[in-house]
Amino acid sequence: MNEFTPQRIRGLVEAAAGVAGQTDLSSLLRATVSTAIELTGAKYGAVGVLGEHGSLVDFIPMGMDEENIKQISHYPRGTGVLGTITRQAQTVRLDEIADHPDAVGFPDHHPGMHTFLGVPVRVGDRVFGNLYLTEKPGGFTEHDETIVELLAVTVGAAVATLRLQERLRRAALQEDRERIARDLHDSIIQDLFAIGLSLQTAIGHIDHDGETVRTRMSDAVDRLDTTIGALRRYIFDLRPPVWARPSLSAEIRRLVADLAEPYGIVVGVEIDCPPDTPEAPLTDHIVAVVKESVSNALRHAHAATIDVRVACDGDRVLVNIADDGSGFDADGEHGGLGLRNLARRVSAVGGEYVLDTAPGKGTVVTVWFPLT
Known about the structure:
By secondary structure, this protein is of the alpha+beta class. It has helices at about 5-20, 25-40, 65-70, 80-90, 140-205, 210-240, 250-260, 280-300, 340-350; strands at about 45-50, 55-60, 90-95, 115-125, 125-135, 265-270, 305-315, 315-325, 350-360, 360-370.
């Protein structure tokens, strides 16, 4: 595994193609970490996504099971050696992490790590994030470094492609909306105006020609029915097509990153749903639950870790937001911090809402939405 054999080069090409073929950001990042681990023989891997100010806004680890991850006191915050990669935008390869002058140790219950390889992932001229690998028996080699750097180039290009696709979708959607607005003005509004004029004319005959009034009123009703039907079609057209909608995973990750960045907290996000599931308007309700719950945890709970999980399970969608913050009295005057309104929203669409919290305990919000 330490030489550029034909088999290893072929493996790199195939792996890079698999990564580049992902259609949403979450799948792309997970495929990146998994591929890097496989290509180098590392035990652990992760990718960290950087915000506008260079802090970690998302962190996707692999190699540890869920129980191990839950025991760790907090996700990395982009300091120490990880921060060095961000500041220098250069690869860092170490036989012993603790020997690096910027090392700051690990959070509580974090597994021990010694060998390390960290590579920046660039999108254009900007560093999008960093790819981290640790614990390769015997240490990482120059060949490992070269292969992971090549993989990072592929990932950067794939991220740029996904972003370009999203911008094109938005541009197409905006153009379509402008077309519909013109059609509404040129067709529907003018039809309604003409019907209004016809009714005004009919009013002038109401005292001496009832039959004419009845005929014109009947005609106006028929024309209104036709116009309302056309209006409904326009309203339906205003709904973005499936290809123009951002995936639920991309929308939640972008939302959480924007919310968390000012606080310097990495919010864990796990989305386990098919790319096109669920559809609007259910996605709006899911995003609202995540936004309210994460905002509360960031602003009021003083939490060190916040985890968001969305999973599609048969005919239901699970939304779970957990934090290790201060908690609160759910029955108190300020209990819920806006979550009561959220509970009513969930109930209105046939969902189930559970709030588990107490002072000093942290908070877990669990919501089930029906898929049908």
